[in-house]
What we know:
- This protein is α+β, with helices and mostly antiparallel strands.
- The protein folds into two domains: about 5-55 and about 90-285, no CATH class; about 60-85 and about 295-415, no CATH class.
- It is about 50% helix and about 15% strand.
- Strands 1, 8, 9, 12 and 13 form a five-stranded mixed beta sheet that branches. A four-stranded mixed beta sheet has the order 3-4-6-5, with helices on both faces.
Amino acid sequence: MNGFELFLLKSSVVVAVHYVVYYFLLRNANHFTLNRYIILSCLISALVLPFIRISGSVAEVVNFVHASFPSILEEVDPVVSVVEGKSISIPTAIYFIGVLLLTLRFATGLARLTYIYIKSPKYNYSGFTVVATEENTGPFTFFNLLFINSAYFSQEPRQELIIHELAHKKQYHSLDVLFAELVTVAMWFNPFVWLFNRALRTEHEFYADNQVLKQGYNSVEYSKLLFGLSVGLKYSLVHNFNVSQIIKRVKMMNQEKVNTENVSVYFRAVTLMLVTGMAMLYVFQANGQGNTVPDVMPEYVEGRTAMYDVVAKQVKYPLSARRSQTQGEVYISFTVGVNGNLSDVKAVEKQAIVNAIDGVVVVAYGDVEERDVVQVEMGVLEEEAVRVVSMLKSFHPGKVEGNPVSVELTMPITFKLN
């Protein structure tokens, strides 16, 4: 898992945890404006929290990642060449295909609104620029624009509808919708983002309905008006009238208003979100880096070619291994610390190799007859490989999200008799 995929995972966890808190504690509460800002804060925190790092021993201890690179060494006359090749992972490729499709959906929604705006007559009415469209759709607001069916507009729209749409306009609900849609594009794979998107629009409608009722209009008659407007085309970037949402709105309109218990619910919900947010910060730093390729891999200060030159020039095929015709591949693990120094150089099993990166091939030729691989003197080969790798000098440290981290590298070294 690369750094970008790790960011998406962290963001998904933040959204999921916060939505669970919202769903069980706040979805039926009727501080609609506060609910709106809480939802927006949850979406913003999903984008911000993965980048926040808490200084202290936890971050210093746990930022430890594993990687490896291939290398082949033979006995003498080394020839150094670089083998490069990077490819996008399958999960990342699928992610960007999804982003592309959702971006096209977003752009199509804007294009449809633009097309309707251009082709339709426009009027000034009750603080709106009214776009009188021939489309069979219910009224909706997009910033200062009120899109409404021309036949319905010619009959003088009911004042409840105008109050409702003015509430959307004055609260800049269209800006919320655009932001939520962009977050949905970026995190399309996470169902909790879609749920938060829907919840945000529902809170907008609750608020606008409440403004109508505050003006003294009858809730029953107003509900009938809403159901009558729930037919026709729907658009992704605006507030639509649909039956399932209207049923929720009618229930909310008849719900008991804010009381002391409701305030207590908000206190518990906000506190829980803050506590879980802090907990996730520590969890991300304590466990999020394990077995992960850092954003920036460690680099030998003198360059990769120089690093492999050191290994190629210093390595010797142990005489005892030559006499016993021992050959094979050994794996040398070493840690590049946050200060760039090497430590913990040791031979490891093949299973320790993960996340292969670009490597260098060092080729040499000997004058020993080719024989079958034997394992008699593998310990001697490992000792020689450890000795040579220990001679490497300083590295530029690896980094995760811009911060130096300790990185464990594994260098395969093949001893081969020709």
